[in-house]
Amino acid sequence: MRTLVMPLGLAAALLSPAAFAQNAVTTPLPAAQAAQQIAEPADVLTLDDALALAAGRNFTLSAAGHELDAAEGGIMQARTIPNPEVAVLFEDNRRDTRTTTAQVNLPIELGGKRAARIGAAQKAREFAQSQLGATRTDLRAAVLGGFFAVVIAQERVKLARGSAEIAAKGAQAAIRRVAAGKIAPLEESKARVEQANAELEVADAEAALAIARQSLAGLWGSSEARFQEAAGNLDTLPARPDGAGLTQALDSAPELASRRLELERRQAIIGVERSRQYPDLTISLGSKRDNGSDRGTMPVLGVSLPLPLFDRNQGNLYAALRQADKAADEYRATQVRLANELQQATRQLTVSRSSADTLKGTVLPAARQAYEAATRGFEAGKFNFLDVLDAQRTWFQARIRYLGVVANAYQAATTIDRILGR
């Protein structure tokens, strides 16, 4: 006996090629997201420009969008039902005594497999949507942090260059006073050392600026930064609400929502694996013709059902249960971690704002006043050059510390926004 079994789709193609081709052409497919090509400014870059560039050209964000498209395809596939089969059986090679049987085997899913499968696919889509939102939030936070890192690095370069100019003028003044015999040559050597240190500070600041510019440009997929300057205001420090308001907002944090949806997806997969414990029923309909008898064509009706004696999908169900337990633990771990990070960032922002107010209102004016007084006293011959160098170093360090405090404030505010999805 020879048996020929073919999928119904192949049989339909053989019987009606035109109709099958039409169905294949009209099958909907997920549309790919087209990346927006936005030109990077060649001169001044604003924060809005940076956000728009990252939103349109960041590959991580577009990859998350493609993942969402793939989840739509998963729902499309989950909604399909099993294909029937066409089977043709020939018994005996001799035509006069040959028996021919043609039948259609129709699988029928039992145990709610299709509904469970669709539910799991929908949860996968919701998870992909949450991942896309979390990626967008992380990208925005990265752009904000990177943009103000560039602005702060620019200010540091300006400070370093200003300090280098002051050190150069001090060295020239020391040279003139040594030539006039008013100070010892040792003072000139100290002035030159201070000038060299100031030039090293300029080199370090310029290198840090180049790194910050490249890091920011990398967020929109650029191999080099084409903009000349990032336009940002550091006079106004970021402010965020604290206390119970932030704690309540943590419940809707994007990362926490993603973990929650992942837990729900894992629980939906448990339903899928449970439904697979029920065997599927196969109904066979067809006809049989025996050339060796005069009975003609006889109907064929059959029912088959696998016996779940050995394989009851118990292993996959156990794995799904443990994966759900893992997702639950990861959700709780993420909840604790985000709460700690939010508390630390809030405290850091409060401390940074307080330190910035103190530096800006008291330390910086006093340091600048001391430097100006030491410079005038040195020119009048009342102070030695060491006093000028010490005052200059104190003023420069105070300004650098202020920029560091501002950077910490923006970093803390960015962390809060990233956690809360703002």
TrEMBL record:
GO terms, molecular function: efflux transmembrane transporter activity
Keyword Coiled coil recorded: yes
Gene3D superfamilies, alphabetized: Outer membrane efflux proteins (OEP) (1.20.1600.10)
Domain of life from the UniProt record: Bacteria
Lipid metabolism listed as a keyword: no
InterPro entries documented for this protein: MdtP/NodT-like, OMP_efflux
Any coiled-coil regions, as ranges: 186-215
Signal peptide: 1-21
Keywords: Coiled coil, Signal
PANTHER family reported in the protein's UniProt record: BLR4935 PROTEIN, OUTER MEMBRANE CATION EFFLUX PROTEIN
Membership in a protein family: Belongs to the outer membrane factor (OMF) (TC 1.B.17) family.
Protein name: Outer membrane efflux protein
Organism: Cupriavidus basilensis OR16
